[in-house]
Amino acid sequence: MPDHAFFRSFGLFTQAEFLSLEECAELRDVADNSKGEEAKVYRGGEHILHEEYRKTLQAPLTGEAGDRLHEKIEALRPEMESCFDLTLGKLYETRCLIYRPGDFFELHIDSIAKSEEGFETISSRQVSVVIFLNDPNAPEQAYTGGVINFHGLMDVPGANAFGFPLDPEPGLLVAFRSDVLHGVSPVEAGKRYTLVTWFH
Predict the structure, then answer these.
(1) CA-CA 20 to 30 A from 40: which of 56, 92, 114, 144?
(2) 104-108 and 127-132 as β-strands: parallel, antiparallel, unpaired?
(3) φ, ψ for residue 107 (rounded to 5)?
(4) CATH of the domain at 134
(5) pTM of the model
(6) Is 164 within 8 Å of 1 (Cβ atoms)?
(7) What domain range is 111 assigned to?
(8) Separation CA 149–CA 130 (nearest Å)
(9) CA dist list (Å): 126 to 65, 122, 169, 176
């Protein structure tokens, strides 16, 4: 499975050890103790539950932990603007996604959502940020499945049909343009923890 360095060659921004193992453990605990809710998707002009398309638990990351993380991500703004050749707007609040056994997210892009009528604009998201909080191979954190795959990275006809899976590691930050097609395969066992946010 390709590691994060592979994806830099396709224009993604990555930073290993953005969070320490101790910070990852703390944030997993914060997520477990938060009042989460089932994540929704955008359809027909509103956010609705659609468990055939997306199933995961979502919890806001607020308080001191959320403030510290917000500042750390903000510090990367100049590097990300250079990487994506963009002037980035406001950084959205960070959310923790907890994927339990059977949870998944079908192929999607973060800037628009596909409906039966076509594509509907849902936000002005420019760059999406994902931070991985646990190691699928560590005994106390292990999970199977839950692989994030990126599609359409090659500028060739039919590229969307080919997905590249990312080998996660705790503390790794990955940022990509919000119109990049991606999805998360079903978790088979254990829990997968990630943080997500967006620059508008």
Answers:
(1) 144
(2) unpaired
(3) -55, 135
(4) 2.60.120.620
(5) 0.92
(6) no
(7) 4-199
(8) 13
(9) 24, 12, 24, 9
